[in-house]
């Protein structure tokens, strides 16, 4: 059960893991998504999307380079638009019919800093626009810091990754409102991950 009493992504194990990570961020940072238009960057099976919908998001646009991963229950929801086989780095305002209030980022095999310009391009103008970012050290640290199995165990590397990612996003015009450790490890790697909230 989610802290708010909702059951985010509870009916499917893979989505449950992602949904509970986002649930922790929403609760800790006090982010109210009710009525917001959202972008789920790295939609995959739809864990973040499902959680956003259960918290009352008006619409969620999901972008993922993959295809056919999104759970049918999420895909069938009229509040969801899925852009599959789509490289997030090339997203621009003409790809969506409206600007978004909040973007979530849960990416694999790419640094979140590489997609921030594209994500910012579809956010509502400042001072509106929020980001909730899942920081994954295994995809942010240099290869010399990633051990067998994709593990990054060093607390010092974790700190360096968090500092570099938050600084990079702040340089794009945001203010970091806080960073917390994810309550769940990375699904496959078992890595410690972090959740950060940014506003303009």
From TrEMBL:
Residues 18-197 form the Ribosomal RNA methyltransferase FtsJ domain. GO terms for molecular function: methyltransferase activity; RNA binding. The keyword RNA-binding applies. Keywords: RNA-binding. GO terms for biological process: methylation. The keyword RNA-binding applies. Gene3D superfamilies: Vaccinia Virus protein VP39 (3.40.50.150). This is S4 RNA-binding domain-containing protein.
